[in-house]
C-alpha cells in the first residue's frame, strides 16, 4: 500500500490544451450549450516530479431548467495518482441573492 501523500509544502503548475466540441451550435445569446470536452495538462511540482492530467467532460441541458455536467479526470505521476468522476445537475434560471 502506498504512503499517504501529505507534503508540508507543495506547489504544482500545469499547462496544456483543451478542445471543446459543440454538439449543437447556439443560435442566440443565452442559448444552452451541449458540448463535449477533452483536455490534457502536463505539469511539474516544486520537487521536479512531472504530472500528466488528461480529462473528459460533457455538458448536456435537459429541458429549460436543468443542465447535467459530467467530468472524468486522471492525474498520474511518480508521486501521486488520482482518478475521479463527477456528475452535477445545475438548476438554470435562478437568481443569485443580493
Verbal overview:
This protein is mainly β. The chain has one domain. Helices cover 0% and strands 58% of the residues. It contains no helices and five strands. It has a five-stranded antiparallel β-sheet, with no helix packed on it. It is elongated, with a radius of gyration of 18 Å. The protein starts with 11 loop residues before the first strand and ends in a 7-residue tail after the last strand. The mean pLDDT is 86.
Outline of this structure?
Helix content is 0%, strand content 58%. The protein is an all-beta fold and 98 residues long.
DSSP E strands, number: 5
Number of helices: 0
Given as residue ranges, the uncertain stretches (5+ residues, pLDDT < 50) are: none
- Shape by Cα distribution: elongated
Mean pLDDT: 86
**Main sheet?**
5 strands, antiparallel
Adjacency order of strands in the biggest sheet: 1-2-3-4-5
